[in-house]
Every structure is written in C-alpha cells, then in structure tokens.
Amino acid sequence: MAFRSTFLNILVLTQLAILPTSAADQSPDLNPRFWNEDEGFSSPPYYPTPNGGWLPNWSEAYEKAHSVVSNMTLAEKVNLTTGTGFFMGPCVGQTGSALRFGIPNICLMDGPLGIRNTEGNTAFPAGITVGATFDKDLMYERGVGLGGEARGKGVNVLLGPVVGPLGRKPRGGRIWEAFGVDPSLQAIAAERTIKGMQSTGTIANIKHFIGNEQEMHRMTTVVTKGYSSNIDDRTLHELYLWPFAEAVRAGVGSVMTAYNDVNNSVCSQNSMLINGILKDELGFQGFVVTDWLGHVGGVSSALAGLDMSMPGDGAVPLFGNSYWAYELSRSVLNGTVPMERLNDMVTRIVATWYKFGQDKDYPLPNFSSNTLDEKGPLYPGALFSPYGVVNKFVNVQDNHNATVRAIARDAITLLKNEDNTLPLKPDDPLKVFGEDAGPNPDGLNSCKDMGCDKGVLTMGWGSGTARLPYLITPQDAIGNISSNAEFHISDDFPSDVEVNDNDTAVVFINADSGENYITVEGNPGDRKEAGLKAWHEGDDLVKAAAEKFSKVVVVIHTVGPILLDEWIDQKSVKAVLVAHLPGQEAGNAVTDILFGDYSPSGHLPYAIPHKESDYPESVNLKEQPLGKVQDTFTEGLYIDYRHFIKENITTRYQFGHGLSYTTFKISEPSLSEETPLNDAYPPPRKPKGPTPTYASTIPPASEVAWPEHFNRIWRYLYPYLDNPEAVTTGGSYPYPTGYTTDPKPGPRAGGAEGGNPALWDVAFSVKVKVTNTGNRPGRAVAQLYVELPSSLGVDTPARQLRQFEKTKILDPGESETLTMKITRKDLSVWDVVVQDWKAPVKGEGVKIWIGESVVDLRAVCEIGGKCSLAE
Ligand SMILES: *[C@@H]1O[C@H](CO)[C@@H](O)[C@H](O)[C@H]1NC(C)=O
Ligand SMILES: *[C@@H]1O[C@H](CO)[C@@H](O)[C@H](O)[C@H]1NC(C)=O
Ligand SMILES: *[C@@H]1O[C@H](CO)[C@@H](O)[C@H](O)[C@H]1NC(C)=O
Ligand SMILES: *[C@@H]1O[C@H](CO)[C@@H](O)[C@H](O)[C@H]1NC(C)=O
Ligand SMILES: *[C@@H]1O[C@H](CO)[C@@H](O)[C@H](O)[C@H]1NC(C)=O
Ligand SMILES: *[C@@H]1O[C@H](CO)[C@@H](O)[C@H](O)[C@H]1NC(C)=O
Ligand SMILES: *[C@@H]1O[C@H](CO)[C@@H](O)[C@H](O)[C@H]1NC(C)=O
Ligand SMILES: *[C@@H]1O[C@H](CO)[C@@H](O)[C@H](O)[C@H]1NC(C)=O
Ligand SMILES: *[C@@H]1O[C@H](CO)[C@@H](O)[C@H](O)[C@H]1NC(C)=O
Ligand SMILES: CC(=O)N[C@H]1CO[C@H](CO)[C@@H](O)[C@@H]1O
C-alpha cells in the first residue's frame, strides 16, 4: 500500500466544513440563555432514556444483540456508537467495528433520492415529485429501488426518507427532499418508502427530527447558535411529528436528529424529544444518529438518548477530536454515563443490524464517496493515509430507470389547459425556449452536489443529491419525437425568432434551492434571493414568448411553490405543467405527457398562492446576524392550505389541484363503520415488555487501553485512552435538572411502534366510484379530507388530508371503486392536558370530504348520516 498526502484535500475540506459549537456546549445546560431571550420556550427534561427491546416485533433481533453485546468489551461497544471521523472511510460516515462478532464498520450514506457521490447508481426523482404522484405503489417501488442500490454498494444505512422539513416555509431550501406540505401525505409516502427500502435489508433513516424548516442559521457553530424552532405541543403532534410517528410504526431502523434547536435545546441532545417523545411515546426501537457535525455535547447527548455520533468529530472536524469515541469511554469509566445507557445504545444499533438481516451476506462497501477513481486514499481525512483500490464500480441500476420514468411522468401536474392545447402532435410546429430544456453546458454532473442551476433542473442541491448516470433532457426527448421542433436553449428570448401562425411555443423555466453549505446565485440553500419566482428571469421569458406566439405551453421544474401571476392569465398562455424534480428521465417523462402517450395525473403537493404575502408572516425566512434566531411557530396548525382556507384567501392553485386530458366523475360514495369509537380516548396501552439486561458494573479500564502494536491512523477516531487506569470514578457531575435513572412508566399515548396501536384501528372506511367521463385514458386521484367537529373543544383546520388513492389507467367510460380507510388517529386531536389523542365519540359530527383537490370536493359523508354528492 502506498501512502499519499491528503493535506491539500484537508485544507479544502476544512473550509467547506462548518466549524460547530463552542466548549460551553459540553455543559449539560440544555437551555443556554447567554445569546438572547428565548421567547419563553424551553424544553422540559425527560430522563432516563427508555431502553429498547420491549416490543415483540423486535424481540428476536434484541435477543441476538443481547448475546453479542453481553460479550463485548468497552472498546467494542464505544466503537459502534461513534463515527471514525469525517472522510475516514468510503462512506459519508461509518462507525468503528466489532469484528470479533462479525460486525463491520457500519456504513451510512446519503441520500434520499439515490446513492450520493458515486457512479453506477440511479438518480431517482426527488421526494416532492414522489408526493405529487399520489401513487402508493410508485412510492414503494422507489423505496425498493433505493434500498436495492444501497445494498448493492454495501451501504448499511441509507439516509432517507426526509419528512422534515415538512414544508412550513415555502422558501425553505430542502422542502423538495420531502414529499409535500401535509403531514398525512408525508406520512404515507414515508411509510411506503421505508417499507420498500427495508424489504431489501437496507436500514432506512427518517430525518431530520425535528423542526428543521429553514436552512440559514441551522447549525450551532463557533460564531453563531442554530435557530430555535419554538413549537407548541399540539402543533408538534398534529403536524411535524405525525410523519415521524408513521415512520416508526413502519418499523424504520434509524432516526436522524436535526441541526436546529427545538425550544432552545439542540435536537441532538433534547431529552424531551429523544427520550420522551421518540423513544417513549412513539416506542422507537432502532437507533438515533446525529446529523453530520450536529453533535454538540458528549455526556449531555448520551443522557438525552442519542445512540450514534456522525461522522464522529467534535467541535472542530478533521483533527481527531470527538465528543464520544475515547471521551465516551472516559465518561463510562468515570461513572458519569451509566453503563446501562451505553449498553442500550449498542444494543439498539446491533439489534437493528440483525433485524434487517445484515449479519447474513451483506456486502461491504464497494465504492468510495470521496473519489470516482479506482484507487485513492482509504482515509482522505487523515494526514497520511494508506492508499489502495477504493472503487469497484458495481453497477446497481438494475431496471430502475423504468421506475424513475413512471414517477416523473405520473407526478407531472397539469395546472391549466385551454382549448385542449395539450397534448401536442408530433408534427405540430414547435419553438422550444429556455435553458431548462437542455443539458448543463458545463457537462453532466459538473457542479459539485448539483450546486448550480444549469440546464434542466432534475433535483435541488446539497447532500440529498446523487450523480446522474445519464440524462435525457427535454430537448433530447422532444427532438426525438417531434418532426418540427426548433430549439432556443437560452433564457434570453431571441430577437430574431421567426413566428408562424400555427407555432406552439414551449417555454421551460425553473426554480431551484438546496442545502445551506452551498450558495447558488445568492441563495444560501433557502430561496433568499430568488424568492418564489422563476430563476433567470424566467417570467420575462414566458412573457416574451406570450407576446409573440398565440399558443404558449409552460413547463416548470421546481423545488416547491412558485408564483405564476405575472403571466398565467395572459390569453396566449394556454397550458402550464409543473414537472417537479424528475431525475435522470426528465425528458422522457415530459414528452410522455406533452405528446399525449399518457394523461397527466400528478397533483400539487402544496398550494400556489397569488402572492407571497398571502402566507402567514411567521413562515418567512428568519435572520439575525448576531445572535440566535428565535423562530416561533405562531401560525400553529395553519400552514399552506390550512391557512389559506382559514383566512378565506383564494389561491392561484389549491393543494391537490391537477388536471388531466380526460375528466372524471366521483359517484356512489359510501361509508361503513369498522371499529367503533366508543370512547374519546383509545383504550389503555399495554405495559412495556422486558428489555435486555446486562451487568451494570463499570468494565476494567484495560478494555480501552491501546492494543499492542496497533497501526494507528492519524486523526482517526478510536475508543482508546492513553492512560485509562488513571480515570477514576467518584467525581461529581453537574447532571441536568430533572436527571434520574429511575425508569418512567410508559406514557399513555404510547404502547407500540408509533404510539398506542389502537390509534390505527380503522374507524371508518369510505368507498367511491371513479369513472372516466372523457375520451382519453387517464388516472384519477381521490383525496380524502376530514373536517372535525367543534365538539372537540379546540380550533381545528376546516379540511385536513388524511388519505388518498389513485386509480389504474381508466379507459373512457371505465370505472374503478376506491376504498380509503380512516383510523382513529386520523380523526383525533392531540389533547395537551391529558397527553393523549382525542377523537369525537362515535365520530359524531365528523365530515369526510372526497375530492380532486382541497377545494374541488365531489362527495361528503357525515358520520351517522348519509353520503352525498357535493355541488
Ligand atoms: C416546547 O414549548 C411549548 C410551549 O411551552 C410546549 O408546549 C412544548 O411541549 C415544548 N416542546 C418540547 C419538545 O420541548
Ligand atoms: C457470549 O458469552 C456466553 C458466555 O459467556 C456464551 O455462552 C455465548 O455463546 C457468547 N455469545 C457470543 C455471540 O459470543
Ligand atoms: C474499533 O474499530 C476500528 C476500526 O474502525 C478497529 O480498527 C478496531 O480494531 C476496533 N476495536 C475493537 C476493539 O474491535
Ligand atoms: C409489528 O407487529 C405487528 C403485530 O404482529 C404487525 O402488525 C406489524 O406489521 C409489525 N410491524 C413491523 C414493522 O414488522
Ligand atoms: C467524565 O468524563 C466525561 C468525558 O470526558 C466528562 O465530560 C465528565 O465531566 C467526567 N465526569 C467527571 C465526574 O469528571
Ligand atoms: C432502462 O434501461 C434498460 C437498459 O439498462 C433499457 O433496455 C430500457 O429501455 C430502459 N428503460 C427505460 C424506460 O428507459
Ligand atoms: C427516441 O425514440 C425512439 C423511438 O420511439 C426510442 O426507441 C428511443 O429510446 C428514443 N430516444 C430518446 C433519447 O428518447
Ligand atoms: C397552419 O395550419 C393550417 C391548417 O392545418 C395550414 O393550412 C397552414 O398552411 C398552416 N400554416 C403554416 C404557416 O404552417
Ligand atoms: C371566512 O369566511 C367565512 C364564511 O364566509 C367567515 O365566517 C369568516 O369570518 C371568514 N374569515 C376571515 C378570516 O375572513
Ligand atoms: C468486496 C465487496 O464488498 N464486494 C461486494 C461488491 O458488491 C457485490 C455485488 O453487490 C457483492 O457481491 C460483493 O460482496
């Protein structure tokens, strides 16, 4: 093995890396008040961490883990909890190993739409696109594809799906990684994705827990404090926690904490969130990992319920320092972190590894996320690293291109189509405008982590990206089908373009955003500079085309809501399609729709308002250059359509809107009662089952002494101490207020993964018949919204999406009956006093609406009454 200096790399990387946190954060004070006022929000203590393993679904995995962990040394245990350091292995993060038990360095890798920074992978459509399909089968299929590719590359934990951000802030940089601005849409899509991913043996990771709704000022660093998302208990439960609960119920193996604070306590060491809500109330049995460099304190995070530090580094990355690794060894030897807590961390990690069968023939990493070369440094973050083969170029794409195309196509949302301008015919004379129709002029994947807006927009930027293995641009695909297309791949309208009577102008525009560590055209992740407008003066391009041509079709690739009012009412703007973020099959998906091979069947996973000021002011981006941003969720439950409906604000297009080339009729609505809601609250939960027990004695210090003749890599993170025998117990530690090691009885809202299982009792099921009443084949989505009665005693949004189903392709005249099940939880509000979910007894007063958007309602069922067709 050759050695190669990677010092230059490090200089670059250190600049890229954000230097987090000050030493003050090592103190257990979870509510530092020295920056500025906390607006009265603080997070109550919740100790100790509930041990994992008390549910039957996980008992076999926990038994296996128990027999292994009970034989582990302190060094082996600590190894599995801590990353080996930033750029210290092939994956974006990996733990140390416990090879005596066959447990390798556990590889964690981005991201939610494909395997990042490698080749031979698929670039799937982004989450927002998947949400827009409203297609549960495609959601699952994408999960299977992602999981299969992760497994093929030797990735143990794939870092997705994303349900936080939920999409509270339309300008929020990462809303496109998640599935849309509604908790049930997020929850259903996450559940399908997780089940698909984990069916392949890959461990899914639901993130970011929680309140990570803005990119700017998200991190605690040496110069600033991460913002605090101040969220009241009911809003947390009914909006932001809802998809996490469903993910836990789906059996997700791991959860990633968010960078920001909630109620002025950093998410990676917020005991109420991790110990209380995630592990006790939601009964989460897997392990909790930090976001990268989101670890800000050693003992404090261990006590608050964190199980794994990634990538392992401490306040200043890449210098071989950690809050855990050798420091965790020390804090166990000195008696500050109870052995029981460390045993639980490791048991959770090892049990999850067994649960998904990763002990049996699971591949080791075959790739390097650090380079595309075959050979390179094994540990690029080391000052000097052994050098060797790092990429085996395993092609894991399989036939996933078909899934990509199906999702990208079925997400395309037709907002407007006057005079049946669409679909086009292959011989229609077309003039195609916009850089968004073409390739990146600098070359495929030429922008690191997609940090630029050049050519067709296939995904946003940041860690949630994957390299495109190839790209079918709209230009490629239109050029291949149309016998009469002329391309002007530029965002400037050409002055000399020839206009003929029969021409259709097809104008491609986009709006991008991404993660905070890259700023693109003045947008530091969030759409700070661009606002909610099209990029590159896209509105002007549309207006110029609309002035010259009598038929204009606009195609929009966008990360989220985009304002259309500057031009959408112009007479010549005949048709508008939102194609979301399609991934590698962008062009094929759009021509499948433009030329009518398929009718569009996507629906908006957010509302599009007339103007940005229609949103509640509290969802604007927040900045405070010196000091800590307090971001208080004063709008409560009223985000996106919930807000617009409450305030009687007419939107340009409402949540769920999406036209087809055909029309549908919803008829014969019917409702049947399944499990009666005899009581407002669910029946009492079962007590927790037993969890693995271990000796609680502090192990011999020699277990973390450096092994003899150990080939130590500089800056690599190890569990070992130079002089472990010198660590003594008996010192006093300033434990946080409320700290205890006496286990709490489980909270009444808990009882199984996701919460009290009775919350998922099906209370009612609703059937509707959907008929294709037009003259082209197409697919319809039935969206089910609940309206809860005032008898619950709390103000509740007038409509809340709770279910949806999509038909198969229906031929003209053909019908399909769709069944949607409504659970007790779907009809409940979070009772902040009782700390449980409260439903209207017997469903009294509940109305269930079925429609094609939140305002295009076609049928209504009243519980105890009849179902009828709406006007
Ligand atoms: C945050 O503070 C609000 C207001 O006091 C409270 O309702 C909520 O339960 C707190 N949540 C957490 C996780 O601390
Ligand atoms: C762990 O040790 C016990 C006895 O100490 C032994 O019976 C068991 O087989 C060991 N398990 C493993 C996985 O090594
Ligand atoms: C801890 O993990 C490292 C690899 O990350 C390995 O070199 C070392 O041997 C492991 N220690 C033990 C005790 O297994
Ligand atoms: C857990 O067990 C319950 C009851 O056996 C089952 O319905 C559920 O699907 C299981 N969940 C997972 C994730 O395996
Ligand atoms: C034990 O070690 C940890 C990690 O270094 C340290 O934070 C803590 O203060 C120590 N406890 C005592 C009582 O010295
Ligand atoms: C997907 O790729 C395969 C080859 O890997 C090709 O045969 C097939 O046509 C592609 N499918 C689509 C829908 O592009
Ligand atoms: C071009 O069209 C042909 C025939 O429809 C098809 O087989 C081929 O895959 C298309 N190529 C692209 C790049 O769309
Ligand atoms: C426009 O279409 C009509 C009818 O299809 C045709 O007669 C006419 O020649 C076309 N005009 C141009 C400029 O192509
Ligand atoms: C919205 O309209 C309803 C019904 O017309 C009315 O009762 C309500 O006061 C209006 N709300 C607002 C905020 O204007
Ligand atoms: C060394 C190694 O981990 N090889 C794996 C690479 O990927 C193939 C295909 O998934 C596996 O079979 C190998 O075990």
TrEMBL record:
Family, per entry: Belongs to the glycosyl hydrolase 3 family.
SMART domains in the record: Fn3_like
Compartment(s): Secreted
Region of interest (Disordered), residue spans: 671-694
Keyword Ion transport: no
UniProt organism field: Aspergillus sclerotialis
Record Pfam families: Fn3-like, Glyco_hydro_3, Glyco_hydro_3_C
Protein name listed in UniProt: beta-glucosidase
EC number: 3.2.1.21
InterPro entries xref list: Cellulose_deg_GH3, Fn3-like, GH, Glyco_hydro_3_AS, Glyco_hydro_3_C, Glyco_hydro_3_C_sf, Glyco_hydro_3_N, Glyco_hydro_3_N_sf
